[in-house]
Amino acid sequence: MDNETNTPQSLDEETLFIVSQTFKALSDPTRIRILHLLFQGEHSVNEIAEKLSLLQTTVSHQLRFLKNLRLVKYRREGTTLFYSYDDNHVMDILQQTIDHARHL
Questions:
Q1: Own/partner pairs, 35-41, CB within 8 angstroms, 24+ separation
Q2: What distance in Å separates the CA atoms of residue 49 and residue 57, rounded to the nearest whole number?
């Protein structure tokens, strides 16, 4: 709702696309596991792969998808990339959904 006029605000195509891609990102168990781990702190690709028992190539592919949606960010230290989450809004949704699932 538009606060000034109390009328529904239409969604433009770009917003619809980003919202649908964000939900697509959150619909994949591997990406959920990666985001959940990053919510706990920054990790390198190798650390993520090791802690989640995934192949490094799988982790890299999923991180690229998440980075393109601006859900994760990275910093470089030498030749190592360290990833962390980059969107509190989406992480709040993810955490609330996890809490909901555990509450059932």
A1: 35/66, 35/71, 35/72, 35/85, 35/90, 35/91, 35/94, 36/94, 36/98, 38/72, 38/83, 38/84, 38/85, 39/85, 39/91, 39/94, 39/95, 41/84
A2: 9
At 16-58, the pLDDT tens digits run 999 999 999 999 999 999 999 999 999 999 999 999 999 999 9
Q: Could you give the angle at the alpha carbon of 27 between the alpha carbons of 98 and 59, nearest 5°? A: 95
Question: Could you tell me the residue ranges of all domains in the chain?
Answer: 16-103
Q: Does domain 16-103 fall into CATH 1.10.10.10?
A: yes
Q: Could you tell me which of 85, 104, 74 has the C-alpha nearest to residue 32? A: 85
| The overall pTM is greater than 0.90 | no
- Cβ atoms of 82 and 74 within 8 Å: the answer is yes
Q: How far apart are CA 88 and CA 5, in angstroms?
A: 28
